[in-house]
Specification:
Helix content is 52%, strand content 12%. It is an alpha/beta fold. The strands form four sheets. A six-stranded mixed sheet has the order 8-4-1-2-3-13, sandwiched between helices. Strands 5-7-6-14 form a four-stranded antiparallel sheet.
């Protein structure tokens, strides 16, 4: 049923893939619909019916946004008592291990009922943090669909408020709200008492769409998103297979559920009622059930009425967040607040990638942190858009002294990785403790190096002995005495057999060495990602450059549409003197829409450029991505159609030519230059890791000063290698959908 235009208030919940929109007048809802954003023509028809002038001024609506990424935190009793003013919340929010960058915006309220936090009291509160760029991108997403937000609400808090109110009315039960994000999510545990706990979750919508793409054998992620959100595809057969691919990640969620209590019901944000199959399948894997509220009673508690029974029947659990927003706005309640600018800036202790300072004495033993002394900055390959300084080369690893024979030796103690304060009195920083597995692999690598060195030196000594033995060969062969010939042959044979045995041992070390180097590279990569801000900046830059490439690649489709619509609009308007003819309107609307999409895409790319530039400040690698052509906002179309016919045709032709030129040559050139930059960043990161690894290896070798029992160490290395190989095979068999292992 299409709405009829009249004076009323419009409400919308906009996520990356979905749009929920409703209209209310005097708390009576006369229109509601859930749509995937892929149905642009249907959305435009609805907007036109809701507000006839939406193309000129945008759809004016109270809008619930879902910025990505976001970080949620529920306070402890001590935090709730200590931080209750705005300034205190700002400082506390900056000190959380949120891992977010850029200036932050926040929302905060009491965890029980969503009321605003007062300076007095000790009630626990819920805090949400999001980068300013995330909110800007969410607003750009709304502008892309020509939505003019009257207020910017939190979509997640709307769902929290609805669930908490429903549980309070029932006075029993609990629900875990899976706040789905693009690459990071949160689990909010809700009871009649409000939000009881918040747990981070690594599984996001990206992994879900990857599973959909894999099971349905689709070529593009966009097709997977369209089929997942559209609701027309029957997932009754493939739904269980999709969720089965997510089982390893869902196991982590299952471990987060309360132990010893009834498993809470499951609800999700960012979905519509058409994805109820997904919530049902996930709940089944978690040993739970989907949350199915009593919608009529809850809406009555919100003091909402419906113009027709069909509207009420169309509501689902996914729509109650928007219903909660409508009821709260209609009643004028100041609960579950909107996003607000908090002015929090990223501090040195805000993200987990930076080591906090430690007040310590010079005798304190600390885990070493990568610094300018131990790891020199890497030297990237020269690229036009990069400017860097070549770092100081690390000192060479000294060759440890080992005896030429393989006599029994005592195994060295495990390295302690000690890093003491400098004599100048400067206080060292405490980095995250190096994992035990990394310590073990580094020690094994040192033992392997010493075993190889000892075997190599022993082989060299055997070669010298062999030459000496060959020099004692009896003259004229058979003319020598029998005893001399026997002694010569025995000595030569013994030397050759021993050398052959040593060479065989060296060959046995080759696969072990390859395994250790592969394992250590991954372990050190993970460790440096949390211990070294510079290394993390290299990794993040690579990811952002790849994201920049994806955005530029997506612009190709928009630019082609722009060129096509510009030519069609010029042809239709050129055939008539007066603009506004009935046949021209669809072409003008399509041109305005594709122009808005292209402009929003340039905003995304600009935000990525800003983030890359910020990361470049923490490294000696200054990244400057190539500039993009300028594309106008959707209002440019309104100005063009008012020009005289000659100027209008010239302007449309010029814009069409610019779009086609970008598609023909400009896009590929931009992508190639960006790929060169990404390759250089990867090289810089790899060189940084290599330098740090070399210095770390030096420290381990310096502690291996005692004699070595080579036979014993070789046996231990083989056992460790076999155990790791068996674990890897077991994991591969367990994770394989074709495996019979249970």
């Amino acid at each position: 049923m299409m709405p009829t235009p009249h004076e009323s208030t419009i409400y919308a919940e906009l996520t990356e893939h979905t749009l929920l929109i409703a209209r209310s007048r005097d708390a009576c809802i006369d229109f509601f619909v859930e749509l995937p954003l892929g149905k642009s023509s249907a959305i435009q028809e609805i907007f036109r019916a809701l507000q006839p002038d939406w193309q000129d001024y945008g759809l004016r609506a109270h809008t619930a946004l879902s910025p990505q990424p976001v970080y949620w935190h529920r306070s402890s009793l001590e935090e709730a008592s200590a931080y209750r003013t705005e300034e205190a919340l700002r400082q506390f929010g900056a000190s959380l291990p949120h891992g977010l960058t850029d200036a932050l915006e926040l929302t905060a309220c009491h965890a029980a009922d969503g009321t605003l936090i007062t300076p007095d009291g000790s009630a626990r509160w819920l805090l949400g943090l999001a980068p300013e760029t995330s909110l800007a991108l969410a607003r750009a997403h709304a502008a892309e669909w020509q939505i003019d937000p009257l207020s910017k609400e939190s979509a997640t808090l709307g769902h929290v408020g609805a669930i908490a109110r429903a549980l309070r009315l029932a006075d029993r039960g609990s629900v875990v709200l899976w706040d789905l994000g693009a690459d990071r999510s949160h689990l909010l545990f809700i009871s009649p008492r409000g939000v009881d706990a918040v747990v981070p979750c690594s599984l996001g919508i990206g992994e879900i769409l990857t599973a959909v793409q894999s099971v349905l054998k689709l070529s593009f992620r966009r097709a997977a998103a369209q089929m997942f959100y559209d609701g027309n595809f029957d997932f009754s057969v493939t739904g269980a297979k999709i969720v089965a691919q997510l089982a390893p990640a869902l196991a982590g969620i299952r471990e987060s559920l309360p132990a010893g209590e009834a498993v809470p019901l499951l609800a999700c944000t960012g979905l519509t009622g058409k994805q109820s199959w997904f919530v049902r399948e996930v709940a089944h894997v978690l040993g739970s059930k989907p949350w199915v509220p009593k919608i009529r009673g809850l809406c009555a508690d919100f003091q909402l009425r419906f113009a027709s029974p069909d509207i009420e029947a169309s509501l689902s659990a996914a729509s109650l967040g928007l219903m909660h927003l409508i009821g709260r706005r209609e009643q004028g309640k100041s609960t579950w607040p909107a996003w607000c600018r908090a002015g929090i800036t990223r501090l040195a202790t805000a993200a987990p990638f930076f080591a906090p300072s430690l007040e310590s004495d010079a005798s304190v033993e600390l885990t070493p942190t990568p610094n300018a002394e131990s790891v020199s900055p890497p030297s990237p390959a020269p690229v036009t858009e990069l400017a860097s300084e070549r770092p100081r080369e690390p000192d060479p690893v000294p060759t440890p002294r080992s005896k030429p024979t393989l006599a029994p030796r005592k195994a060295p103690p495990p390295p302690s990785f000690i890093h003491t304060a400098r004599a100048s009195g400067a206080k060292p920083a405490l980095a995250p403790k190096m994992p035990e597995e990394t310590d073990t692999r580094l020690r094994e690598e040192a033992h392997l190096y010493l075993c190889r060195q000892s075997l190599t030196e022993a082989l060299e000594q055997l070669d010298r002995s062999k030459r000496q033995i060959e020099g004692t060969r009896p003259p004229f062969g058979v003319l020598g005495t029998k005893k001399a010939r026997a002694h010569y042959e025995h000595s030569l044979r013994s030397t050759q057999e021993t050398a052959l045995d040593y060479r065989h041992r060296l060959q046995e070390l080759a696969p072990i060495e390859h395994w250790l180097q592969s394992a250590l590279q991954g372990l050190l990569h993970e460790y440096l990602g949390t211990a070294s801000p510079e290394y993390h900046a290299y990794s993040e830059t690579c990811v952002l450059v790849e994201r920049w490439q994806n955005y530029v690649g997506e612009m190709h489709e928009f630019a082609l549409g722009l060129a096509r619509d510009a030519r069609l609009t010029a042809a239709l308007i050129g055939s008539r003197a007066q603009p506004g003819h009935i046949q021209q309107q669809p072409a003008v609307v399509s041109l305005r829409t594709i122009t808005s999409h292209l402009h929003a895409q340039t905003i995304r790319i600009d935000l990525v450029n800003r983030e890359i530039a910020r990361l470049g400040e923490s490294t000696r690698l200054a990244v400057a991505l190539p500039p993009l052509p300028t594309f106008h906002h959707g209002t440019w179309v309104d100005r063009v159609i008012l020009l005289n016919p000659h100027d209008r045709a010239l302007e449309l032709k010029r814009y069409e030519d610019a779009a086609r030129a970008f598609c023909k040559n400009g896009k590929n050139d931009l992508l190639l230059r960006a790929e060169s930059i990404r390759s250089t960043c990867l090289h810089a990161r790899l060189e940084y890791l290599g330098n740090y690894w070399a210095n770390l290896r030096l420290r381990v070798l310096e502690q291996c000063t005692d004699p070595l029992d080579v036979e014993h160490l070789l046996t231990e290395l083989k056992q460790s290698y076999v155990s790791a190989d068996l674990d890897l095979r077991r994991k591969m068999e367990t994770n394989s959908p074709f495996s019979l292992a249970r």
